Sequence to fold (464 residues):
Amino acid sequence: MEPAGPAQRGAVRELRLHLVTWNVGTASPPPDVTSLLQLNSLGPTMDMYVIGLQEVNSRITNFLSDLAFDDPWSIFFMTVLSPLGYIKLSSVRMQGLLLLVFVKHVHLPFIRDIHTHYTRTGLYGYWGNKGGVTVRMSLYGHTICFMNCHLPAHIENTEQRLDDFEKILEMQFEGENIPSTLDHDVLFWFGDLNFRIADYGIHFVRESINNKRYNLLWEKDQLNMAKKKEAFLQEFIEGPLQFKPTYKFDLYSDVYDTSEKKRKPAWTDRILWRVKNLCQHASKEDEFSAEEQTISVTLNNYISHMSYGISDHKPVTGTFGLELKPLLSDPLVMLNPEGEWSAEHDVLISYSAVPEFPSSAWDWIGLFKVAFRHVNDYVTYAWVEDDEISSNKDRKQVYMSAAEIPDMGGEFLLCYYSNNFQSIVGISQPFQIQPNRALMEKDLTQEENSWMQKPDNLESHDEF
Fold:
């Protein structure tokens, strides 16, 4: 893991973001997502994964839950990504819509003000089968918003799709000083947007696809057509559609719909983005220099993944570079374990906070395995006030009881959780906890005793 030290103010930093949208059609997760998450790709690893799913199989009892720990897809992605050093930062779920955000540990102290929201649009807003789920945050001081949508189906419902998206854009996050959706520095909009290819017949569409002449279909794509007319869409950017339309396929194949309905292929699954300062300066480009731009977004690739056949949609991914000047230069809290740690004695944690840090009696420090999945995946924790044993203006000390420390030892790290920020604001370097020698010796003695008690003439039983 990289040091969780200060981020240089003014120095441009590039973060790599991998965004997935997939209508999974109520299916269970596939055996492998290596190619979907580009885990074998050469070059730098991703800093953040954002995964938006639609039509996740949901029980009615939990369709509005944002606690997705019992959801098979959430568990699946945590199982894949946590051993690679990613933590599930946030999730929000509304019936079949699920949005997951994973980040590398090193960025945790610089991600704040995480909020989620959902907007129902299906059946007059009473039922969550269509709509949007949103996660927003401050990333190194820049506001970022991710919006996963499932809009109404069928070729004739373009206006309904646009109306629903406008309604989702107008939603407000709860909390003070949180900007509206369009006031975020960067907004990503993705999902099963359900826009179809207008006018052209199915034979022309399929022939164009077979000949890989996708550009013949672009001008009749309903989203492209809407972007020319609707002012609020013109600020959204999308990469070129250089891949096959991702709907509708026979299951476990790359053959388009052979059922009686024979749905016309369409690019229903899309990823778009909007950079606020580009919109503000678009009308006065000559006054706008690159130096003024504190965050920019570059699309590195925009592809579909034809090998996945569990659904009638193919997943789509976008890999982005986020270039930004960090507006936060230091973690709010720096912390580390003191001395050698083992379950044979109580242990100490030392930490310091920046002067302006608004601490709370509800703040706590958690002990986590290095491959922890989410903020509640701690082994144990200490309250920073109740378990404090010393304090001066520079550093404070908190203790953890020996009884709480894992006997087997291993590699762990410490995280400081702020109740006011509702997030991790400090993280230690990984460190070793030594195994409990007394317990190991006891186990060894018990093993020897059990071995001594075994009959030593087992071979004699073969004679009978």
Remarks:
- Residues 376 and 428 are 17 Å apart (CA to CA).
- Confidence is low (pLDDT under 50) at residues 1-6, 60-68, 286-291, 457-464.
- Helices lie at 72-81, 158-169, 202-210, 215-218, 222-229, 231-234, 276-281, 437-453.
